[in-house]
Amino acid sequence: MYSTATLFRRIDSFTIEPVSIRRICVYCGSSPGKSQVFVESAQALGRELATRKIEIVYGGGRRGLMGALADAALAAGGRVAGIIPQSLVDAEIAHRGLTELQVVHTMHQRKAEMTRRADAFLILPGAWGTLDELCEALTWAQLGIHHKPCGLLNVDGYYDLLLQFLGHAVDEKFLKLEDRELLLVSGDLQDLLGKMTQFRPRLSKIPAKLETQ
To answer: Which of 14, 95, 141, 163 has the fewest CB atoms inside 10 Å of its own CB, making it the most exposed?
Structure first.
């Protein structure tokens, strides 16, 4: 069982300095996508984080953008930790050349451990799994369960329609503008990393007391 007491650092002050990022959790697709630009963006991210000595925490896969990200970071001398459920290890999807590969029992444990380790979240192109992870990270930020920056790299306009939908959700008053602004967005990697390092958590809410298991 995981609880917010063990998963997240409680912050009781209402002012805080920009976050210190030593580990970034990267969510991305296990497919390479249609365009080579998606693979190149994952490789560029891996190299950049290695250069900055920021450890990557990701889903532990060897295929698609996940594999491209990990391979590029490792080739540049970076550290990469993969968190993967046993079922995907059994399916021979795990990356065996990582700095660390942690095998867990369930998909939920996978996400919980990735969240626990990370100082920030960065989203590359992906589909159902990536969107699920993005939405959970943002929902927990909205509820005050964590206060970590969430950045979306909008590679070649891939997420344009998602961003349009979020604007629509704000217009229709299902999403507050202040909560929409929890998602940091840029099509440029350096700009996005700059936004993430300068992110100041919004501590207007008492962290929610939730149990996850």
So the answer is: 14
Please state whether beta strands 120-123 and 211-212 pair in parallel, antiparallel, or not at all (unpaired): unpaired
Local structure of 65: helix, strand or coil: helix
pLDDT at 26 over 80: yes
Q: How far apart are CA 86 and CA 104, in angstroms?
A: 6
DSSP state of 157: G
**pLDDT tens-digit readout, 72-128:** 999 999 999 999 999 999 998 999 999 999 999 999 999 999 999 999 999 999 999
Going from N- to C-terminal start, the domains of the chain cover 21-157+184-197
Q: Give Cβ neighbours of residue 80 (< 8 Å, ≥ 6 apart).
A: 46, 55, 56, 58, 70, 73, 74, 98, 99, 100
Three-state helix/strand/coil letters over 78-89:
CCEEEEEEHHHH
Q: In CATH, what number does 21-157+184-197 get?
A: 3.40.50.450
Contact between residue 124 and residue 29 where contact means Cβ atoms under 8 Å apart: yes
